[in-house]
User: What shape does this take?
Amino acid sequence: MPKYLYRAKARNGQSKNGTISAVNKVAAKASLANKGLKVINLTTQDDSETKTGGNFITRMVYRDKNGSIQIRFGSQLPTTRELALFTKQFSLMIENGIPMLQALQMLGDQQRKQDFAEIIMKVNRSIEAGSTLTDSLESYPMVFDALYVAMTKAGEASGRLDVILKQLVTYIEKAAKLKAQVKAAMAYPMIIVVVAIGVVTLLLVFVVPTFAKQFSESGQELPYLTALVINMSDFLVNRWMEIIGTMIVSFF
Assistant: This one.
């Protein structure tokens, strides 16, 4: 029997956190309601690792469907365009009368990104255990955002899930197009900033030390701004390994 992590609020307003075993999410919510708890968030323990990222090694190394060991490179979650394609295919399958569980199984098998494939399969198993599609998708906010879940809920409630999913595809595609336009508009300023930083760094590392030596030999007191530039140059020249190491650690 699966275990669920819950965050709930008691009748007196006090927040409660804990775990509960139940056949599915519906049963878990009903059990908590009988205890006087209003559920705020409910996820399976199996899902918690996927949502938080899990262990670095276990996220990078996995076994494929044939049992062969594979290594992940880059993000294994879907891009906006990949999510739109998944939603479009899902809507077409529902429209053509393919059962939801079968449709999700087929779509999960088609995915090249391991994490996304696992999420689809977990959604499939959750529905098979008795949860609704909305509740199942809600467990993966890093893929299915609040709007996606809300529109899916509206589609389930109205019995027009395929129509709502098509509308969702249109929204996702427009959002992806807008995102691409914003990235394109920001590309030129970013290039200018990177080039400017590169030029300033080269000046501080190779040019300023030459002048600093001349100023030092003259014995004259330097203006504040000149001394500041020379100190920055000394810091870069003498601490470049620490700076690069810090940048690498921050990146990972």
Summary: The chain has three domains: 1-46, 53-175, 186-251.
